[in-house]
Every structure is written in structure tokens, then in C-alpha cells.
Amino acid sequence: MSLHSVCTRFHIALELIGARWSGALLHMIFKGKHRYAELKAAIPGLNDTMLARRLRELEAAGLIERRVLDTSPVRVEYHLTEMGEELRPVLDELVVWAHKWIPLPEDKAEAS
Amino acid sequence: MSLHSVCTRFHIALELIGARWSGALLHMIFKGKHRYAELKAAIPGLNDTMLARRLRELEAAGLIERRVLDTSPVRVEYHLTEMGEELRPVLDELVVWAHKWIPLPEDKAEAS
């Protein structure tokens, strides 16, 4: 397994979770938000077009799965797959790092 | 510390390392490549304009520092700061995950 092939995989992975909003969506699903409206409400600035697109991309990449619950009315939920679940250590490490190193933007600082 | 402020920091951090090529650059600097030409050669597809821009952004964000060595001719090197170094666990976890879950693109598969 050459260095180059490990790097290629790493770069693909980073672009997958680094795409604007994708990481935030994964983070929210990890936190138990599974419905479209919940996800939209939890991420300020994320519009419907981008939310739908990112959900499709994450599903196509195999990180999440779309479940249609046989209720009335029908309910749709987004859940992590095994592949998605195994990103937890990456996201957890990033939360620790971000909490230590990333200052809150002023407008957010008062609200925190 | 509200959930929202932790998420805000996390989202900023993810966009910082998730920006196209930034993660790859950090990864290469972690691997001991410190010179402009080395970085350019190590990341296929990365052009001069984008390389210069990402290096400036990573420097402005405090993840790397630009060192001018008093040699003849003068040498310029890019090194991780303490803030950058502490991303190592994040990148290491991502390499493990990528190695398990991300298939190599066909054109790269033969070369690996």
C-alpha cells in the first residue's frame, strides 16, 4: 500500500466530510437529529436546496441512509450507516481541537 | 458552553481543514514536506495560484508558519504551529477511516 494510495484515500475522505455543510450535517445526525426539519433548524444558514443536495451526496457516499417509516403520515429519517458511525472518532477529535483553538466569532460570543 | 457554541467552533474548524487542498497540504507538512516545490509535487492537480492561496489561509488561521532560513540562496519553509500540530489526532483518525472505507479510484488502483 503506497504512501500515495493512502493519501489519495485521505484526500477523498477529507473532501467528502469537508464539503460545506456536510460535516455539520453529520455532526447533527450524530447528536440525534434525524429529520429534515430538525437538521434544517439545527444549522443556521443552510437552505433547502443545499440541505437536499448534501443529504443525497452523503447517502450516495454511503455515510447515511434514508429510512421511510411506515407511519401515517409517512416519516422520513436520516441515520448513519456503519461507515458513517465509524467517523465518530474523527469528529470527536475535531470537536476537542476546535474547542481549544477556534475562537467564537463576536456575534456568537455573546449568545454562548 | 452551549451546544450551539461548540457546534459553531466545530463547523469553522471543519471548513478550515475541509477547504479543497487544505487538508492535503496539512497532511503533507505532517509528513515532512516543508518547501513550496515539495508540496506542489506531492499533491497532483494543485496549481500555483491555489497552493499560494491555501498556504496564506493556513498561515492566517494560525495552523502553519512561514520560516525564512538565512541561507544563500534564502530558503522558505512551511511548518506546523502548535495549533497545527494538535490536529494530528484528527488527521490520523481520518487516515484510518479512509483506509478502511474509501475505495481507490480505478485509475489510481493499478498504481498503488
Q: Describe it for me?
A:
- 2 copies of one chain form a homodimer.
- By secondary structure, the first copy, chain A, is mainly alpha-helical.
- Chain A has one domain (21-103): Orthogonal Bundle (Arc Repressor Mutant, subunit A), CATH 1.10.10.10.
- The first copy, chain A, is 60% helix and 11% strand.
- Chain A contains 7 helices and 2 strands; from the N terminus they run ααααββααα.
- Chain A has helices at residues 3-18, 22-30, 36-42, 48-60, 82-85, 88-101, 106-109, and strands at 64-69, 75-80.
- In chain A, strands 1-2 form a two-stranded antiparallel sheet.
- The radius of gyration of chain A is 16 Å and the shape is globular.
- Chains A and B meet through helix 1, helix 2 and helix 6 of A and helix 1, helix 2 and helix 6 of B.
